[in-house]
């Protein structure tokens, strides 16, 4: 009788042993398959985040004392920037740099203006320094769709369209302000610019929601979010004069955060940038905030797979050692009739592989039931451990025009990934079968070593 037939017969006769081995191998295969699926899904999620979030480089004018001069005006003494401006020519050059997928300029506050042919939402103090009453701050941007208030979901466009780079003399207002003054898209607002003592006219191109219920008790008109409008990037130039042309800062969007350093170097070495009074910096905080938990999850799962493999090897080796030592007489008889040691070991291995094949098959549907639960549970633990989800914006400096807290955007950090979609792909079974087979081979060799290395006479003497 060949060892293959003996292996099948032994598995059938030893039903309890086969059941125990089946349960152990099913658990091992399920854990490994789940781990591989979680690690692969986390890797895929990280790749998707890299393309969806991207990286960001900030180009800003250097406002240090060496680039400022003090000049007298009708308002007293002001410090004026006399360094290099960020011009439209620089924008055109940056647009052509490989790896750059877009840019935006946001200045908050961009301009201050009083209402002429409409009224601001009331505050506790409604008086102002101008002949038309209180000023309100207005955010200046090239692309309002990329403004943090909209990207964070705090603000939503409810009518009209977003502001784009080519717009001039346009404005977006809150739904609160529109309802208060019975305004709609296409209406024109008159704003009084106290600095130049002139009235400018701006067409409403969009109305947004998200400020409702956030400023009824605001101290001043300017501090009520519903009064903080959004204007085009050329608003300063149109309101204050040609000397205010150009941009004070520029957010440059990079397609892949991994390539952000190379893009940074290309920008820094560009003739229009190099040697000028600019500050160039990398901002990958949003990507890192989201991606770090995923990377931690990948590392944790790899460690768990290694631990599971080692523990499984120890358990299998222990079980097989006990069982094989109980088969000393069978081994002695087989060796005495001339069965080679290789065939005996092959029989032991085949017995385990027969059970393993069935166990691996059961592990596939079982992993579908456990992967999502296990993956998202581990993901939440990783996020909790990082303490990032406990970020409290109330700890930031809150106030009018604070650089640390934007009342209008209401956003100060990226949304964290707390759940990922776990997919069990058929090709993952290759990993399970490979790891499982290696475990069985190693466990059988360890378990059978003490018996197989003995000669038949030595086996008989130990039995006696």
Strand tally: 13
Q: Into which percentage range does the β-strand content fall?
A: 15-25%
Rg estimate, integer Å: 35 Å
The class by helix and strand makeup works out as alpha+beta
First-to-last CA distance: 28 Å
How much helix, percentage-wise, in residues? 40-55%
Helices and strands in order, then pairings?
Layout lengths: L2 H11 L1 H39 L1 E7 L6 E6 L2 E6 L6 H8 L4 E5 L1 E10 L19 E7 L6 H4 L4 E5 L9 E5 H7 L6 E6 L4 E12 L20 E3 L2 H6 L8 E6 L5 H9 L9 E6 L1 H41 L2 H9 L4 H46 L41 H25 L3 H8 L1
Parallel strand pairs: 6-11, 8-10
Antiparallel strand pairs: 1-12, 1-13, 2-3, 4-12, 5-6, 5-9, 7-10, 8-11, 9-10
Give your account of this protein's structure.
With 464 residues, the chain is an alpha+beta fold. The chain folds into two domains: 203 residues, no CATH class; 141 residues, no CATH class. Helix content is 46%, strand content 18%. It has twelve helices and 13 strands. The radius of gyration is 35 Å and the shape is elongated. It starts with a helix and ends with a helix. Keywords: Cell membrane, Membrane, Transmembrane, Transmembrane helix.
């Amino acid at each position: 009788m060949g060892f293959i037939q003996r292996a099948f017969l032994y598995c059938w006769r030893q039903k309890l042993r086969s059941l125990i081995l089946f349960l152990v191998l099913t658990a091992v295969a399920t854990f490994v398959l789940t781990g591989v699926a979680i690690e692969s899904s986390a890797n895929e999620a990280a790749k998707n985040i890299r393309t969806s979030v991207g990286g960001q480089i900030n180009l800003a004018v250097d406002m240090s004392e060496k680039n400022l001069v003090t000049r007298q005006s009708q308002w007293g003494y002001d410090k004026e920037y006399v360094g290099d401006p960020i011009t439209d020519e620089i924008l055109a050059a940056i647009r052509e740099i490989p790896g750059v997928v877009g840019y935006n300029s946001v200045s908050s506050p961009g301009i201050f203006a009083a209402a002429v042919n409409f009224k601001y939402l009331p505050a506790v103090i409604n008086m102002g320094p101008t002949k038309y009453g209180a000023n309100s701050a207005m955010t200046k941007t090239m692309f309002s769709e990329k403004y943090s208030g909209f990207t964070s979901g705090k603000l939503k466009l409810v009518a009209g369209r977003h502001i784009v780079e080519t717009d001039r003399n346009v404005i977006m207002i809150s739904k609160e302000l529109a309802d208060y003054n019975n305004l709609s898209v296409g209406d024109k607002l008159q704003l009084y610019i106290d600095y130049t003592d002139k009235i400018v006219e701006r067409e409403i191109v969009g109305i947004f929601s998200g400020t409702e219920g956030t400023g009824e008790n605001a101290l001043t008109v300017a501090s009520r979010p519903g009064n903080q409008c959004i204007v085009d990037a050329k608003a300063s130039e149109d309101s204050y004069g040609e000397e205010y042309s150009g941009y004070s800062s520029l957010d440059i969007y990079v397609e892949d955060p991994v390539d952000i350093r190379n893009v940074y170097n290309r920008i820094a070495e560009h003739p229009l940038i190099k040697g000028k009074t600019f500050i160039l910096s990398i901002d990958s905080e949003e990507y890192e905030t989201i991606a770090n938990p995923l990377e931690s999850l990948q590392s944790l799962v790899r460690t768990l797979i290694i631990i599971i493999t080692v523990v499984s090897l120890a358990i299998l080796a222990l079980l097989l050692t006990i069982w094989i030592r109980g088969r000393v007489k069978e081994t002695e008889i087989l060796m005495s009739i001339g069965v080679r040691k290789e065939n005996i070991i092959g029989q032991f291995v085949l017995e385990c592989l027969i059970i393993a094949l069935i166990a691996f098959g059961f592990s596939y549907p079982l992993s579908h039931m456990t992967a999502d639960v296990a993956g998202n549970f581990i993901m939440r633990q990783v996020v909790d451990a990082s303490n990032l989800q406990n970020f409290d914006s109330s700890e930031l400096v809150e106030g009018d025009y604070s650089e640390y807290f934007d009342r209008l955007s209401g956003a100060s950090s990226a949304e964290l990934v707390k759940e990922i979609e776990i997919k069990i792909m058929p090709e993952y079974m290759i990993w399970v079968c490979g790891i499982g087979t290696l475990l069985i081979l190693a466990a059988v060799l360890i378990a059978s070593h003490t018996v197989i290395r003995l000669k038949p006479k030595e086996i008989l003497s130990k039995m006696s």
